[in-house]
Amino acid sequence: MAAAYGLYTHIQANRRRSIYLMIGLFFLVYLMVFAGALLANGLMYDASVTWLMRRAWRDFLYALPAATGGTLIWIVIAYHFHQKLIDAVTGGREVTRMEEPRLYNLLENLCISRGITMPKLKVMDDESLNAFATGLNEKQYSITVTTGLIAALDDAELEGVIGHELTHIRNGDVRMMVIAVIIAGVIGFFAELMFRLFFQGGWRFGGSRSSDGDRGKGGAGIVIIIAIALVVVAWLLSIVIRFALSRRREFLADAGSVELTKNPDAMISALRKIEGRGELHHATSAVMEMCVDNPREGFADLFATHPSVESRVHALVQFAGGHDPGPLALPDEVDPNAGIPQSEAPAELPGRTSGGVSGQPPKPFLPGQAPIGSPLPGTDPGPWGPKSRS
Q1: Residues 165, 250, 275, 289: which is the catalytic one?
Q2: Can you give the pLDDT at residue 141?
């Protein structure tokens, strides 16, 4: 498969990967079913490895139609109801222009400018700074934004984030990630089922012995080890598939945002504000993998689903001509007295304390700022407060 070097070749590559993912889904499911058959036979019979393998293969062929049908049902359910499940987890709600005019207009303008079908717009009540897109087709596509992101970003920065999510939709990243989540769900379900069967079986190796000499014996333990190894391999492959899809797509979505907005600096400053503030505490790992930034990282960054904000900003500076302001603090995180030496901080008026409560330490004011309670230039204090001289 040829590598994708640009946005449009990336779209074509994603379409091919979606097909490969669906094929891989069935392969992993069948691998799990065969591992289950091995595990069941190893727990039930004490026979040779060859006999147990042959019997497990026979059981696998019997179970194949049911496994295929169950997987198809899972896909149909996920296709029609995945968005409702995500909304139930995140608390996202669809909004109209009247409810969120600023956000709605930014999204609509971007869609009109590029002839993109406008996805649904959703908002979730969360102080974290993040956003994500979901859906498998044009009727399902939606962009969800947190209230914290809306409050913290200006219009240009918010437009950059929306452009990032629109690019994920245009590139087919969203469809591919939803399929990857379906794979993880199926494999996780079967893996849990296999391990429950194993542990509830009481670690019995070959529960039934036969006098039939051609069956042999002593292979149950080996078969059970093989079955567990297959389950672990299938589970790890499902994880690798999900993580392998995430990193490069974020760089291309950042580039796509700049292509839509023509403003690399806005995307850079948005990333700097989101940096370290994107954790959705009630969201699953699958949802976090679809977000603008995923602060959840595995050991040694091996299983991190997103490249670091630093590397994404560096790419925008290098290839889009943006300017990096460095890590940014939000207004509510800034100490108004930072940088003022204590010796230079003027004292408050006698008898006045912060908040008017006696005994609290005085609150300094900035140089050149009138102390609280002092008359403004050209005014006299009156019984109802300062008033202008006439």
Answers
A1: 165
A2: 93
